[in-house]
Amino acid sequence: MIKVCIADNQPIVHFGIKSYFNNHKEISIVGGAENYEEVQELFRGKTFDILVIDLELEGLVSINFVKQMIKDFPKVKIIIYSNLSEQIYTPNAIKAGVSAYVHKNSSLEDLESAIVKVSNGAIIFSEDVKKKLALIAKQNKSERLYRKLSSREIEVLRYLSDGKKNNEISKILDLNEKTISTYKLRLLTKLNVTNLVDLVNKAKTLEIV
Hints:
Mean pLDDT: 86
Radius of gyration: 18 Å
Structural class: alpha/beta
Number of helices: 10
Distance between the termini: 37 Å
Largest sheet: 6 strands, parallel
Strand content: 5-15%
Order of helices and strands: EHEHEHEHEHEHHHHH
Shape: globular
Low-confidence stretches: none
């Protein structure tokens, strides 16, 4: 039996997944968390094989948190289950060591398939993502700008787009405010804009945020 834990902000997601896998022949939902602190408690108190986690989970401020989980608990496979743009976040998630990225627009059958395949050692992401990444490779230079961004730069850009100030972002990511300013300048340069408004608009146009 594949033992799975779910980490998601929304109780309805927990309910839907638990209901779908109720009495499943291969998969058992053995625990859940609604924030990052509860995820840490899961790792301390439960034995499970796979963690299905949303990148927008409360308290999960960086993909580096996921990377650290994988380092600390190498026997547990991580599946990202999120509404965030697959074409933006999949490459960094895979680099962090996750085993799969399933968009929430996908069916629960797709999540089921991912869980089974990951349990058997596969590293997968959806056919839609593969097609999008293939198309992106053919896009012109301006359309591919986001590929130059690091995972940390994408995180900073995401918070800037949410209207957060440099000092707020520095506290969230536990970084020096000057470091955030440096990331902001890099973002302006890499996305070829001169101010925050244009930066956010460019990010939205390219579906980075």
